Structure formats: C-alpha cells, structure tokens
Amino acid sequence: MQSEATPLIDPNLALFERAQRSIPGGVNSPVRAFRSVGGTPRFIVRAAGPHFWDAAGARYIDYIGSWGPMIVGHAHPEVVAAMHAAIERGLSYGAPTEAEIEIAEELIRLVPSLEQVRLVSSGTEAAMSALRLARGATAGAGGQGRRKIVKFEGCYHGHADSLLVKAGSGLLTLGHPSSAGVPAEITQHTLVLDYNDCQQLEDAFKAHGDDIACVIVEAIAGNMNLVRATPEFLRTMRALCSRHGALLVFDEVMTGFRVALGGAQALYGIDPDLTVLGKVIGGGMPVAAFGGKREVMKHLAPLGGVYQAGTLSGNPVAVACGLATLKLVQRPGFYEALATRTFKLTQGLVAAARPSGVPFCADAAGGMFGLYFARLVPQNYAQVMAMDKSRFNAFFHAMLARGVYLAPSAYEAGFVSAAHDDDTIDRTLAAAREAFAAIG
Ligand code: PLP
User: Fold this and answer.
1) Residue identifier of the C-alpha nearest atom 12 of ligand 1
2) Element at 125 (helix H, strand E)
3) Distance from Cα 385 to the centre of ligand 1, integer Å
C-alpha cells in the first residue's frame, strides 16, 4: 500500500460513518460493508488497469474487478473512448438501436447455445426473467404451468424472491426463505439440492418430474468461493431435464466470458436451453441478458405471453461499453494469457503458504479463482462452510495492509484481469509470502 501521507482521521472511516447516516449499513450492496472480515470498507476514488485507489490515497491491486465485469482492467482506453462516443449521441432513447442488434449478434455468435437474447440491466433481473420464461414456456396447452424450479445450495442467482431460499430440513423438502420479507408461499416451489449430488437430482425428478419447469445452476459456482461442477453432475442434469421436459438454465452471469470465451457451457460441452449473462457483457455498466433456444424465447412478449420489460434495457451507453469489452476479449490469445496469469497467481499463493504450514489450496478457471483455507478443494457448500474462516479473515487483512484487495469474504471467488501483468502478480505473491508468515 502506497500512502502519500498519513492523515489524522482515516478518510475511509470518516466516509463510512457519514455513509451510514444516509445509506443502510453505509453500502449499496451488503458484501461491500466488510461485515464478514471486519474493519473499515475502503471508499474508492478512482481505478486504472489492475489498481484502484481509496479515499486515503492508498493504492491496491484489485482482485474483485467490480465482482467480475472488469476483465480488461479498469478504465481501458478503448472502452472509455467507445463510451464517450456513445454519450455524445445521447444517454437513453427507449427505442431500439442498431447497437442492441450488434451485441445480440455477438453474444449469439460466441455463446454456443444461444439463438436469441433479450437484454436487461442486472443479473438478478436476467435470472428472474429466465425463470418466468421457463415456467411460461413449459406450460401445457391448457396454460397449466409447471411450478417448481430446482436450484443448488451455495449457488446465487440474484435476489429475486423465489431464489432467496435455503434447503429444507430433509432431502427433497421444499426450500425455506433465506431472507426476511419473503413469504414461504413464494419459495415453496423452489427445490434446493446439494451441488454435485447426482442422486439427489435423480430423486427430485422421480418425485416431482412433471412439475419441474427448470433447473438453474452455476456450472462453475462463484458464490460459494469457487466450486466446479463435475462433468457427471452436469450431464445428469441435462439428461434429466430432457427426459422430463424441464429446461436447463445455465447462470453464466459470472462465468460468461470469464472462464472461457464461450463460458462454462463451452468448457463442459453442455447445451443448456437458457443462459443467463451479466457482468463482463456490460464491461462495468449495467448490462445483463438471458437467451437460448428460439423455441423457448418465442414465448416472450411481444411474441408470446410471458411478460418482461425494462426502461433502460439495452441502454446505448451501457451497450457501447459492453460491445467494446467484448471486442477486446476476442483478441487472439486473450483467454490463454488470462488463464496463465491466474494460474501463476494461484500456484504462487499455494507455494507462498507452504512454509507457514497454514492449510491452504487454490483453484483457477480462466480468469476466476478460489482460495481455500482447507487441505482440499471443496466440492459443495457444506465443504466450503467447513473452511477456516478466521484464517481467511486474517489473511485478507494482512494482504489489504500490503496493498492487495481480495474479496472481503471467505465465500467469494476472485477475479484477474488482462491488466494484471507478471509484475502485478509478482507483487501480489511477495505480499502473500509476508502475509502467510504473519498469520501462520
Ligand atoms: N447470478 C450470478 C451467478 C451472480 O454471480 C450474480 C451476482 O453476483 C447474479 C446472478 C446477480 O447479478 P446482479 O448482481 O447483477 O443482479
């Protein structure tokens, strides 16, 4: 951390105290408040490349990248130029534009299963809309819809009411709300199963097969740290959905354009019926999307009876940002270089931990990584929860003090951008060697 001067009152603390007077908890999204790790959230004033700077003038190597979108690094000149050009032409029209066609065509060309897409403004909105569409598209001729959706413990698909749900007490019992303000009637149709458990999937379809509208999954989960699905788990899911007339929904809000150009579906060779996208496709602006097979998408208004709309959907400035970002990630070698850097980081962290004797391992998928204070890489939510959270918290603060900003929670994935060059990774690893020694 490079501080220009040490002020008497920490400007971050002063801002946090002020923020808490006008904003609940002082933040506009809970994890930013540092509740899980303790301490004072950093208030960011600017960012460039792999770095951002806080209100005290301290510079950090940023490993959250706005929780995924900033894959080309902060304030990339080509992205900024595209946005300036778009801004000059007006901010929002509420009428269609050619740029929306361009980004739709780009997404369809790059994500294997997509035949049509609809743009929205957040991952939450995209997942919520995809579920409504799945229910609407699987309704029988008499309009009698399938009601149930299947999700997995530890996967996050945004904060729509029916998705704020945790597993019931027994296998295959329906989920309970995981947030206040969500009536049980709304989550009663959401089945919550264990990630990577094929038998539970088989049992769920045996019990409820003709009432399941869809299964929604993060094929590489990034909201319980990083946990990979086994190929068998995804193949079983695909086969069961096809056999029972349910739709398979891949939530690639995090993995889309992050683990590979074609997302997790390209890596695993699985063909979902619907895909949910966000984060990278907006490059830091609010763009998300859901899309899939034409046969399914035709049920969406104005063609079909499933309603969905948005004042700022396909906003021209946001789309310009997304298109410029998507252009950059298609440059030859982009994902190879990103994966190589990310692997160098995770391998280096494992080596840095070894002398300290701290149980630690790591995993990387493209430009996304998981750090585990445990001996083995976890396979499901229960194993993630069994990790040593207090060790993570100590490591987080030791790294922060050395100018490295990791996700402020043991249960989040991390992100590397194309701007994280070898020097950035080397500086991170030097900080990690000190941090592990300090917490060992
Ligand atoms: N789905 C996944 C896999 C996510 O990781 C997230 C956010 O982190 C969402 C959905 C929700 O996206 P948003 O925060 O844009 O609403």
Assistant:
1) 123
2) helix 123-137
3) 20
